[in-house]
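User: Hey, quick favor. My workstation is busy. Could you predict this chain's structure for me?
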Amino acid sequence: MSWRVAGQGAILLMGCVGATAAVADASSPPDPYDTAKSVPATPAKDMFRPIEGPADCHLSMPTGTVDLLEAAEHALCANPKTRQAWTDVKLKAAQLGGALGAYAPNISATLRRSADHTVSDVPRQPELSSRQMMEFRDYTLNLSWKLIDFGGRDAETEYATQALSAAQAAQDDAIQAVFATTVRDYYAAIAALSAQDAAAGTEEDARRSLQAAKARFLGGAAAAVDEMQAQTQYAQAVFDRTKAAGDARAAQGVLAVDMGLSPNVPLQLPPIADDVPADLNMGASIDQLIEEARRMHPRTQQARALLRAAAAKVDSARAQWRPTLSLNARANSNTQPVIPAVGLPSVPASGRERFIGLQLDIPIFDGFTRSYDIRAAQASVESQQENLRDIEQQVTLNVWSSYTTLETDFENLRNTQVLLESAKQSYIASQQRYLKGVGNIIELLTAQTALGNARQRRVQSLADWRAARLELSASLGRLSLLSMQ
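Assistant: No problem, here it is.
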């Protein structure tokens, strides 16, 4: 090889080294195997409501009335659990790229420039003494390419693929969990606000009862005990309204934290709607819902992916017993001078080396380490099988519990409607009877208390029913913005 070619090769190798260093320092290294396509654009995946342009997680501070969709969007983007699950998908995608890289050759270069100062003194024969100052360059290019490994790389790639699938399912499960928590806290917050309104209504009823008792006492139509009992009931109503206001602020703080905000951020929430369907249409039987959850829930999909990954690890451990065939090549060019004889000055020279060959590595004995690796991998498969069974049982139990809770809450919703109407009529009748002097204060206050309790139960049953509907969707693993709409 001529010096010009050697120099050009050195420049090329230096360029490769510079490019490699640039890749190592880059904030976004290249992705030649396109594994980034497996990573969602945001921690919320595709859970955004339809908007113009691409979906992102740059949501502004809520200013108007916060609906459930907006609360869910903020939570999915800002919650650490969804972001951590999203990061884990990135990690597993990068590891899959590393597994695919095992099929490519490894190329490395060594560039060396040396200065060698050698002094040799022979006192009795000074003619043999020498002083040498040599400078030389050495360029080496190495290539190693594993050609055949009898399934080892395939097993590692399959393991990385299934690990990525498990991470994607885990992200879906994290989104469902955060979604469900936000839904529960949202309805808890609006229920607390509605309970505050109901407590204020009860306070107003107690104030009117107190005024009526005072009027009757001053008119001589009632005893002083009526006024005192009405005053006690009014004080209790004020206490309940104050406590309800504190509970509402606390519930709003919990919802704000779910949305990634500070708990002291004020949120405007709508009143709870009092619209109830005529019947409860599940769309499928409980058996069909349980079977759907067993097949499609993100947690069961994650467990199945982990089981497949464990099986791939068994194949990888077995492949360690098999031989590997590699292609090795080496090219070297140097300008190291030679010394003809002791005492003579060095002579400029150049050297070249070319090497290419096949290398067969055959494992023979390693102290049974690989044997125990296989046993450990097989045990991991058995563990993942039991994990899958356990998760399937948990998922089906959650579906059953959510289904029965929804049925119960829907029935109670009807009952509280009847209870509220009855309590209103009873209170109005008791109030009129008392004002006419027919009824007594105990009857009025009892009806007033019953009306306040009926209001509270109605508000709570409305919130429980709406939360139970979405809880069933969450237990099926199909909770989405569309399902809320």
